[in-house]
Amino acid sequence: MVNLALFSAAALAVGALASPAKPKCDNIGVRRNWNSLNGDEKASFLGAIQCMMQKPSLSPNGVQQASRFEDFVWTHQYPGYAIHWVAKFLPWHRWFVKAYHAELQECGWEGEMPYWAWEQDWQDLSASNIWNADPEIGFGTYGNFDYNNVYNSTTITDGAFANHQIQFPFPHMLTRNLPMTANYPWTGPGPYCQRGYNPENMKNLSSIATYKDFSVALESPDPIHNPNSFPGPHGAIHLALWGDMRTDGTNNSSPNDPLFYMHHSNVDRIWASWQALDEKHLYDFEGNTDFYWETGMRSGLAAQLDDPLLYAEKNAMGSEDLKVSDVMDTTEWPLCYTYEDMEPWVVR
Ligand SMILES: *[C@@H]1O[C@H](CO)[C@@H](O)[C@H](O)[C@H]1NC(C)=O
Ligand SMILES: *[C@@H]1O[C@H](CO)[C@@H](O)[C@H](O)[C@H]1NC(C)=O
Ligand SMILES: *[C@@H]1O[C@H](CO)[C@@H](O)[C@H](O)[C@H]1NC(C)=O
Ligand SMILES: [Cu+2]
């Protein structure tokens, strides 16, 4: 098991060592589809998340969040303008999910980070196996939209996170609202923003030649410069789930829903799968460094492989000296994982 202190010390060494001396992975973990975990594994994974929700905050910003779980929400919110609709979107979230997995290991989870292969649920997202009301093995269901009781009707009252009380960035209960997007207008044909992750769009992603175009297509075109575009798969799932998962802009607090990490693990899998399609893809990295949500402005500075990953929470996330280039190859240290299914473009 990875000890967090070791993890941090090891990560700090990345910047200090020349690349040929980079440590080797002891073994390559295989991230599995949530559907292929058995009941005991699911219970252990969800129990580790509950443990994180009960662990005291390490107060990375000098403010006591309600829990270690909420520290991660803050960590995601802090660099907002520099991690969404920019080249760094995929590498930043790759390390974020890895750091979250390390915390779950501290809480007793012994497996790899699982993923939610939502592209396999494209025909009817509401029928996905991810919606499970069982308090031991389920993430809960998707909310029950009621026009007569808009806010409270969306609180999740079943599954492992039933009535989960959130404090950061403002007090409320965990919400989802999938029924809200059954016919959401600007997402194109199909319910639940299906157009973003249907087989045709997934196939399209696999044929994109450059990181610059691939990253935008997977994340979503930025909504300020492309108000009429369809969301990419990443954006489509955030929107479709509504509730906490769709918070963006200044709050940027979607990691309040534990499904955020199941979602981003799949986004990462799609990137890793694209990287594996062509050797030219593995270290391909290009695009913008920043995007100001309020104005849509960019500095125009070109992103580079040796840009720092930019984690506000130094040391605690083992990322102080990590660069984008350190997280391009999932099968190399400090990542050391792969995915059991590297063909998200194939409907199973
Ligand atoms: C929502 O529920 C809370 C109790 O959890 C209650 O205090 C509040 O008045 C309710 N709001 C609405 C709009 O029904
Ligand atoms: C897939 O790509 C084709 C060709 O660029 C385009 O016409 C089509 O709209 C795309 N489909 C989706 C679902 O994005
Ligand atoms: C952000 O949070 C504030 C409360 O702190 C809330 O009033 C506001 O509506 C939220 N904005 C978004 C976009 O959710
Ligand atoms: Cu994000």
Write a brief caption for the model.
The protein is mainly α.
Task: Describe the protein's topology.
Elements: H1 4-16, E1 29-31, H2 39-54, H3 68-77, H4 80-83, H5 89-106, E2 165-166, E3 172-173, H6 199-206, H7 211-219, H8 233-241, H9 259-277, E4 337-339
Parallel strand pairs: 1-4
Antiparallel strand pairs: 2-3
Helix pairs in contact: 2-5, 5-9, 8-9
The structure holds 2-acetamido-2-deoxy-beta-D-glucopyranose (NAG) (3 copies) and copper (II) ion.
Keywords: Copper, Metal-binding, Signal
GO molecular function: metal ion binding; oxidoreductase activity
Signal peptide: 1-18
What does it look like?
This is Tyrosinase copper-binding domain-containing protein. Residues 257-268 form the Tyrosinase copper-binding domain. One of its GO terms (molecular function) is metal ion binding. The chain is mostly helical. It has one domain: Orthogonal Bundle (di-copper center containing domain from catechol oxidase), CATH 1.10.1280.10. It is 30% helix and 3% strand. The protein has nine helices and four strands; from the N terminus they run αβααααββααααβ. The protein has helices at residues 4-16, 39-54, 68-77, 80-83, 89-106, 199-206, 211-219, 233-241, 259-277; strands spanning 29-31, 165-166, 172-173, 337-339. The strands form two sheets. It has a two-stranded parallel sheet. The protein has a two-stranded antiparallel ribbon with strand order 2-3. A hairpin with a 5-residue loop joins β2 and β3. The longest helix is centred in the C-terminal third of the chain and has 19 residues, at 259-277. The protein is globular and about 50 Å long. The model is unreliable at 1-18 (pLDDT under 50). The structure holds 2-acetamido-2-deoxy-beta-D-glucopyranose (NAG) (3 copies) and copper (II) ion.
